[in-house]
Write a structure and sequence with these properties.
The chain is of the alpha+beta class. Helices cover 44% and strands 14% of the residues. Bound molecules: flavin mononucleotide (FMN).
C-alpha cells in the first residue's frame, strides 16, 4: 500500500465516536496523541495550542452538568419550531460525560502587536490564524487516535455556554476555548455520514494556459 493509500484509509475510517467503553486510556497513549498534535503547522510557528487533559470522571461529569444546565436555559430562547430539537441538541453537547478522558483545547489570543492589522476585519480571529492552527493540531490528534484504535469526537456545542465552562475551568491567561475532544476506547462503530462529492466542493477556476487532459 502506498503512503497515500494508507493515509487516506486512516482519514476515511476515522469516525466521531460518542459511546465509549469503561477501559481507561493510558498516559502513554495520550502522550502519543499530543506528539502528533504538536507537529501541526501553525501561524508564524506560534504553536498557539494548549491542551487541558481531564481524566477525573467526576470532573468530566461536573462539566457536562454545567453545560446541560446552562444550555437548557439558553435553549428556552429558541423559537418553538426549533425547540423540538432542544433535547437532541443538549445530548450532542453533553455526551462527553461518557468519555474516560476529556481534552479541553485552547488557542492563545493573537499577539497584541497584530491588533492594528486585525482591527476592522470581519473575522479577525480567523485571519490571525490561531484557532485554525489549533484545528490542525486537533486533526493530527484525531488521526493519531484512529491509528491507535482510540475513539474521539470534537465538540463545539458546549462552547455555546462558554462563559459557564470557562468559569469552571480556570484557563491559563490569554487563552480561549477552541473545542473539546471526547476521548476513549470506542463502544460503537457508526456508519460514515454522507460526504459531498468532489464536484460539489471544488471549482477549478479556468486557466487558459492549461492544455486539456
Ligand atoms: C468543529 C466541529 C465541531 C463539532 N461539534 C460537535 C458537537 O458539539 N457535538 C457532536 O456530537 N459532534 C460534533 N462534531 C462532530 C461532527 O458531528 C462530525 O464530525 C460529523 O457529523 C461527521 O462525522 P464523522 O466525524 O464521523 O465523519 C463536531 C465536529 C467538528 C469538526
Amino acid at each position: 500500500m502506498s503512503d497515500y493509500d494508507r493515509l487516506l484509509e486512516l482519514i476515511r475510517l476515522r469516525r466521531s465516536i460518542r459511546q465509549f467503553s469503561d477501559r481507561a486510556v493510558g498516559r502513554e497513549e495520550i502522550a502519543r496523541l499530543l506528539e502528533a498534535a504538536r507537529w501541526a503547522p501553525s501561524n508564524h510557528n506560534r504553536q498557539p495550542w494548549r491542551f487541558l487533559v481531564i481524566e477525573d470522571k467526576q470532573q468530566i461529569n461536573q462539566l457536562a452538568e454545567i453545560v446541560s444546565q446552562s444550555l437548557s436555559e439558553k435553549l428556552k430562547s429558541l423559537p418553538e419550531a426549533a425547540a423540538a430539537y432542544a433535547g437532541e441538541f443538549t445530548h450532542y453537547a453533553t455526551f462527553f460525560s461518557n468519555a474516560p478522558v476529556l481534552l479541553v483545547v485552547l488557542h492563545k489570543q493573537p499577539v497584541s502587536l497584530s491588533a492594528p492589522l486585525l482591527a476592522g476585519l470581519k473575522n479577525p480571529e480567523l485571519v490571525s490564524g490561531e484557532p485554525l492552527s489549533v484545528a490542525m493540531a486537533v486533526q493530527n490528534l484525531l488521526l493519531a487516535a484512529q491509528a491507535l484504535g482510540l475513539g474521539t469526537c470534537v465538540l463545539t456545542g458546549p462552547l455555546l455556554v462558554q462563559d459557564a465552562l470557562v468559569g469552571a475551568l480556570d484557563l491559563p491567561a490569554r487563552h480561549d476555548l477552541t473545542c473539546l475532544v471526547a476521548l476513549g476506547h470506542p463502544a460503537e462503530s457508526p456508519a460514515p455520514p454522507r460526504r459531498k462529492t468532489i464536484e460539489q466542493i471544488v471549482e477549478f477556476r479556468n486557466n487558459p494556459r492549461r492544455t486539456k487532459d
